Amino acid sequence: MEVKRDSRILKALLEPFGPDLPPTDLDGPRWAQEEALRLHEAELDRLPSPLLSHRRPGVALDEAYLVQWVGAAQRVRQGARVIGHKVGLTSAAMQAQFAIDQPDSGLLLDRMVVSEGQTLPVDDLLAPRVEGEIAFRLAADVRGKDVGEEELRAAVGECLLALEVIDSRYGVEGLTLEDSVADNAACARIVLGPALPGVPEDLADELLTLSVNGTVAASGYGRAVLGDPVRSLLWLVRRLHSFGAGLRAGDIVLAGAVHASLSLRPAQTVVLSAPRFPEAVLHAA
Fold it and tell me: What is the spatial distance between Cα 100 and Cα 89, in angstroms, rounded to a whole number?
């Protein structure tokens, strides 16, 4: 596969305010189109699809990212807009839960956002799970392989708490890193709390607590995410650079969960809190 050629799909998706993709060479190979459609059908039918790694043994990680981009491009052509990225599997708890030993990333679409006051119907998803994390909103473009942590901190305009609802369209039995990546790192919905300006000091020491219906269900410190959530940004910038892309001003980036994910069920209210941040709240029905 010519990865550099196909990475034009990603770069087109990340063009500022550019929802209209060229109709010709940015669709990707037919197998990737078919896989992306299979995942979309699994989402709509709420029935898991057979694993990509089983049907295409030896699939490469870059090929899995191609499936992810093609799937996002299909949704953008239907009116969605890319608003940022999620980084997943950044904590030991999440890596242990899914038996995957390195991070991955996915694209955030505007249609994934559950706004304040909205209720998420759990039946719209296959087997949703919820996790609490720290998120960033970029104030400046960032790209390049030599970007450092201090440059990244300076580029962050806002920091906030976020709840991510993950939902593997492949199921979890036998899931590989390549399956997770192709499935857009299992991202389904996101809830964003009110933001603070810049990046608070000692973010690694921030304790996040997730409560379900008023009872503490999980917690973790910022350091659970690669030692410091800012390092999740660093990992993402370098990963995007390998495809000739970068972060844009206005992008939202979810840094990754600080605890193992929890099943999400109807009639639950999930609240993520931290000492220095406003809460993020999700109502499930």
Answer: 7
